[in-house]
Amino acid sequence: MSRPLNLVVIISGNGSNLQSIIDAIECGQVNAQISAVISNNPDAFGLSRAKKHGLVQQVVDHHCFDGREAFDQSLLETVNRYRPDFIILAGFMRILGSAFIQAYKDKILNIHPSILPDYKGLNTHQRAIDNRAIEHGVSIHLVTEGLDDGPVLLRGRYPVAAQDTAEDLQRKGHALEHQMYPRLIQWLCDDELKIRPDEITFKQQLLCQPIEFNHV
Ligand code: GAR
Protein backbone atom coordinates (compact mmCIF):
# COMPACT_ATOMS: atom_id res chain seq x y z
CA MET A 1 0.00 0.00 0.00
CA SER A 2 1.32 3.47 -0.88
CA ARG A 3 2.02 6.05 1.84
CA PRO A 4 -0.98 7.97 3.18
CA LEU A 5 -1.74 11.22 1.39
CA ASN A 6 -0.69 14.15 3.56
CA LEU A 7 -3.47 16.72 3.94
CA VAL A 8 -3.72 20.13 5.53
CA VAL A 9 -7.34 21.16 6.08
CA ILE A 10 -8.18 24.86 6.29
CA ILE A 11 -11.46 25.94 7.87
CA SER A 12 -13.26 29.01 9.17
CA GLY A 13 -16.19 27.63 11.13
CA ASN A 14 -18.22 24.59 12.05
CA GLY A 15 -15.99 22.02 10.37
CA SER A 16 -18.60 19.39 9.53
CA ASN A 17 -16.74 18.64 6.28
CA LEU A 18 -13.53 18.30 8.27
CA GLN A 19 -15.38 15.85 10.51
CA SER A 20 -16.51 13.76 7.55
CA ILE A 21 -12.88 13.52 6.35
CA ILE A 22 -11.61 12.64 9.84
CA ASP A 23 -14.27 9.93 10.14
CA ALA A 24 -13.42 8.47 6.73
CA ILE A 25 -9.72 8.33 7.64
CA GLU A 26 -10.39 6.82 11.06
CA CYS A 27 -12.57 4.05 9.65
CA GLY A 28 -9.95 3.18 7.02
CA GLN A 29 -12.01 4.30 4.04
CA VAL A 30 -9.45 6.94 3.08
CA ASN A 31 -5.66 6.35 3.13
CA ALA A 32 -4.72 9.85 4.25
CA GLN A 33 -3.46 11.72 7.27
CA ILE A 34 -4.34 15.23 8.34
CA SER A 35 -1.08 16.80 9.46
CA ALA A 36 -2.74 20.05 10.55
CA VAL A 37 -6.07 21.83 10.75
CA ILE A 38 -5.65 25.55 10.25
CA SER A 39 -8.32 28.17 10.92
CA ASN A 40 -8.39 31.90 10.30
CA ASN A 41 -11.03 32.09 13.04
CA PRO A 42 -9.82 31.32 16.57
CA ASP A 43 -13.40 30.45 17.64
CA ALA A 44 -14.08 27.96 14.84
CA PHE A 45 -15.85 24.90 16.21
CA GLY A 46 -13.81 22.83 13.74
CA LEU A 47 -10.75 23.45 15.92
CA SER A 48 -12.49 21.62 18.79
CA ARG A 49 -13.25 18.75 16.44
CA ALA A 50 -9.55 18.61 15.49
CA LYS A 51 -8.51 18.67 19.13
CA LYS A 52 -10.91 15.87 20.01
CA HIS A 53 -9.24 13.69 17.38
CA GLY A 54 -5.70 14.58 18.45
CA LEU A 55 -4.93 16.61 15.34
CA VAL A 56 -2.56 19.59 15.25
CA GLN A 57 -4.53 22.85 15.33
CA GLN A 58 -3.16 26.16 14.12
CA VAL A 59 -4.79 29.58 14.07
CA VAL A 60 -3.76 32.26 11.58
CA ASP A 61 -6.19 35.02 12.50
CA HIS A 62 -6.71 37.38 9.57
CA HIS A 63 -7.54 40.20 12.01
CA CYS A 64 -3.92 40.17 13.18
CA PHE A 65 -2.49 41.16 9.79
CA ASP A 66 -2.23 44.37 7.93
CA GLY A 67 -3.86 43.30 4.66
CA ARG A 68 -4.40 40.14 2.69
CA GLU A 69 -0.83 39.68 1.48
CA ALA A 70 0.57 39.56 5.00
CA PHE A 71 -2.16 37.12 6.06
CA ASP A 72 -1.52 34.92 3.03
CA GLN A 73 2.21 34.93 3.69
CA SER A 74 1.72 33.78 7.27
CA LEU A 75 -0.82 31.16 6.18
CA LEU A 76 1.64 29.93 3.55
CA GLU A 77 4.46 29.68 6.08
CA THR A 78 2.19 27.73 8.40
CA VAL A 79 1.06 25.35 5.65
CA ASN A 80 4.66 24.85 4.44
CA ARG A 81 5.66 23.37 7.81
CA TYR A 82 3.47 20.34 7.06
CA ARG A 83 4.50 19.77 3.41
CA PRO A 84 1.01 18.69 2.33
CA ASP A 85 0.24 16.74 -0.83
CA PHE A 86 -3.08 18.58 -0.92
CA ILE A 87 -4.67 21.53 0.86
CA ILE A 88 -8.33 20.92 1.56
CA LEU A 89 -10.43 24.06 1.94
CA ALA A 90 -13.45 23.01 3.97
CA GLY A 91 -15.63 26.02 4.70
CA PHE A 92 -12.69 28.44 4.53
CA MET A 93 -14.35 31.80 4.00
CA ARG A 94 -11.40 33.94 2.84
CA ILE A 95 -10.14 34.57 -0.66
CA LEU A 96 -6.58 33.35 -1.20
CA GLY A 97 -4.15 35.56 -3.08
CA SER A 98 -2.04 34.72 -6.08
CA ALA A 99 1.22 33.97 -4.22
CA PHE A 100 -0.45 31.34 -2.06
CA ILE A 101 -2.27 29.74 -4.98
CA GLN A 102 0.84 29.64 -7.15
CA ALA A 103 2.83 28.03 -4.33
CA TYR A 104 0.37 25.13 -4.27
CA LYS A 105 -0.84 25.14 -7.86
CA ASP A 106 -3.12 22.17 -8.64
CA LYS A 107 -2.95 21.10 -5.00
CA ILE A 108 -5.70 23.21 -3.43
CA LEU A 109 -9.25 21.87 -3.39
CA ASN A 110 -12.36 23.74 -2.35
CA ILE A 111 -15.94 22.66 -1.72
CA HIS A 112 -18.62 25.13 -2.76
CA PRO A 113 -22.37 24.92 -2.10
CA SER A 114 -23.67 25.24 -5.66
CA ILE A 115 -23.46 23.63 -9.06
CA LEU A 116 -20.64 25.76 -10.41
CA PRO A 117 -20.41 27.91 -12.45
CA ASP A 118 -23.84 28.90 -11.07
CA TYR A 119 -23.94 30.84 -7.81
CA LYS A 120 -20.32 31.70 -7.19
CA GLY A 121 -19.72 33.62 -3.97
CA LEU A 122 -21.90 33.75 -0.87
CA ASN A 123 -25.53 32.97 0.12
CA THR A 124 -25.91 30.38 -2.62
CA HIS A 125 -28.91 28.67 -1.00
CA GLN A 126 -31.00 31.82 -0.63
CA ARG A 127 -30.07 32.95 -4.15
CA ALA A 128 -31.21 29.59 -5.56
CA ILE A 129 -34.53 29.94 -3.74
CA ASP A 130 -34.95 33.52 -4.91
CA ASN A 131 -34.40 32.27 -8.47
CA ARG A 132 -37.00 29.50 -7.99
CA ALA A 133 -34.33 26.92 -8.88
CA ILE A 134 -35.60 23.35 -9.07
CA GLU A 135 -32.14 21.91 -8.49
CA HIS A 136 -29.15 22.94 -6.41
CA GLY A 137 -25.96 21.20 -5.46
CA VAL A 138 -22.33 21.06 -4.45
CA SER A 139 -19.06 21.33 -6.38
CA ILE A 140 -15.51 20.38 -5.50
CA HIS A 141 -13.02 22.27 -7.62
CA LEU A 142 -9.36 23.10 -7.96
CA VAL A 143 -8.59 26.54 -6.63
CA THR A 144 -7.30 29.04 -9.16
CA GLU A 145 -7.10 32.81 -8.92
CA GLY A 146 -10.69 33.52 -9.98
CA LEU A 147 -13.33 33.30 -7.27
CA ASP A 148 -14.88 29.77 -7.24
CA ASP A 149 -13.58 29.47 -10.77
CA GLY A 150 -11.10 26.58 -11.03
CA PRO A 151 -11.83 23.32 -12.87
CA VAL A 152 -14.71 21.45 -11.24
CA LEU A 153 -13.75 17.86 -10.41
CA LEU A 154 -16.88 16.55 -8.76
CA ARG A 155 -20.45 17.79 -8.76
CA GLY A 156 -23.48 16.62 -6.76
CA ARG A 157 -27.11 17.62 -7.22
CA TYR A 158 -30.29 17.58 -5.17
CA PRO A 159 -33.84 18.70 -5.91
CA VAL A 160 -35.26 21.91 -4.48
CA ALA A 161 -38.87 21.57 -3.30
CA ALA A 162 -41.27 24.52 -3.55
CA GLN A 163 -41.46 24.91 0.24
CA ASP A 164 -37.70 24.55 0.90
CA THR A 165 -35.97 27.29 2.89
CA ALA A 166 -32.29 28.21 2.67
CA GLU A 167 -31.75 26.12 5.81
CA ASP A 168 -33.35 23.10 4.11
CA LEU A 169 -30.99 23.47 1.17
CA GLN A 170 -28.03 23.86 3.45
CA ARG A 171 -29.00 20.63 5.21
CA LYS A 172 -29.42 18.74 1.94
CA GLY A 173 -26.14 20.18 0.66
CA HIS A 174 -24.22 19.24 3.79
CA ALA A 175 -25.48 15.67 3.60
CA LEU A 176 -24.11 15.47 0.07
CA GLU A 177 -20.86 17.27 0.91
CA HIS A 178 -20.09 14.82 3.71
CA GLN A 179 -20.15 11.98 1.20
CA MET A 180 -18.45 13.84 -1.63
CA TYR A 181 -15.27 15.19 -0.01
CA PRO A 182 -14.18 11.87 1.54
CA ARG A 183 -14.95 10.06 -1.73
CA LEU A 184 -12.92 12.49 -3.82
CA ILE A 185 -9.99 12.31 -1.40
CA GLN A 186 -10.23 8.51 -1.53
CA TRP A 187 -9.91 8.65 -5.34
CA LEU A 188 -6.80 10.84 -4.96
CA CYS A 189 -5.31 8.43 -2.44
CA ASP A 190 -5.98 5.46 -4.69
CA ASP A 191 -4.59 7.29 -7.75
CA GLU A 192 -7.94 6.91 -9.49
CA LEU A 193 -8.09 10.68 -9.81
CA LYS A 194 -4.81 12.15 -11.02
CA ILE A 195 -4.26 15.89 -11.20
CA ARG A 196 -1.27 16.87 -13.31
CA PRO A 197 -0.44 20.35 -14.61
CA ASP A 198 -1.39 19.41 -18.16
CA GLU A 199 -4.27 16.98 -17.59
CA ILE A 200 -6.70 15.54 -15.09
CA THR A 201 -7.66 11.88 -15.39
CA PHE A 202 -10.28 9.83 -13.60
CA LYS A 203 -10.16 6.05 -13.81
CA GLN A 204 -7.57 6.48 -16.61
CA GLN A 205 -9.88 8.63 -18.75
CA LEU A 206 -9.24 12.27 -19.47
CA LEU A 207 -11.63 14.30 -17.33
CA CYS A 208 -13.38 16.65 -19.75
CA GLN A 209 -16.54 17.17 -17.66
CA PRO A 210 -16.93 17.17 -13.87
CA ILE A 211 -17.63 13.75 -12.37
CA GLU A 212 -21.35 13.54 -11.50
CA PHE A 213 -21.46 12.21 -7.95
CA ASN A 214 -24.93 10.74 -8.32
CA HIS A 215 -23.65 8.59 -11.17
CA VAL A 216 -20.56 6.99 -9.60
C1 GAR B 1 -19.96 24.18 3.42
O1 GAR B 1 -21.31 24.08 3.08
C2 GAR B 1 -19.14 24.63 2.23
O2 GAR B 1 -19.68 24.19 1.01
C3 GAR B 1 -19.23 26.11 2.35
O3 GAR B 1 -19.16 26.38 3.73
C4 GAR B 1 -19.77 25.31 4.42
C5 GAR B 1 -18.85 24.91 5.57
O4 GAR B 1 -19.46 23.96 6.38
N1 GAR B 1 -18.15 26.74 1.67
C6 GAR B 1 -18.26 27.90 1.05
O5 GAR B 1 -19.29 28.54 1.02
C7 GAR B 1 -17.00 28.38 0.36
N2 GAR B 1 -17.28 29.39 -0.57
P1 GAR B 1 -18.61 23.20 7.48
O6 GAR B 1 -17.76 24.26 8.22
O7 GAR B 1 -19.64 22.59 8.39
O8 GAR B 1 -17.75 22.19 6.80
The rounded Rg comes to 17 Å
Biggest sheet overview: 8 strands, mixed
Overall number of domains: 1
The multimeric state of the shown protein is single chain
The backbone outline, from C-alpha atoms, is globular
Keywords:
216 residues, alpha/beta, Rossmann fold, 8-stranded mixed beta sheet, 3-stranded antiparallel beta sheet, 6 helices, 11 strands, 32% helix, 25% strand, binds glycinamide ribonucleotide
Quick structural overview:
The protein is an alpha/beta fold and 216 residues long.
Please provide a written account of the structure.
With 216 residues, this protein is of the alpha/beta class. The strands form 2 sheets. An 8-stranded mixed sheet has the order 3-2-1-4-5-6-7-11, sandwiched between helices. The protein has a 3-stranded antiparallel sheet with strand order 8-9-10. It has a single domain (5-215), classed as 3-Layer(aba) Sandwich (Rossmann fold). The relative contact order is 0.15. Helix 1 (16-26) runs parallel beside helix 6 (166-189) and helix 5 packs across helix 6. The chain has 6 helices and 11 strands. The structure holds glycinamide ribonucleotide. Glycinamide ribonucleotide is lined by residues 11, 13-17, 46, 90-91, 111-113, 173-174, 177.
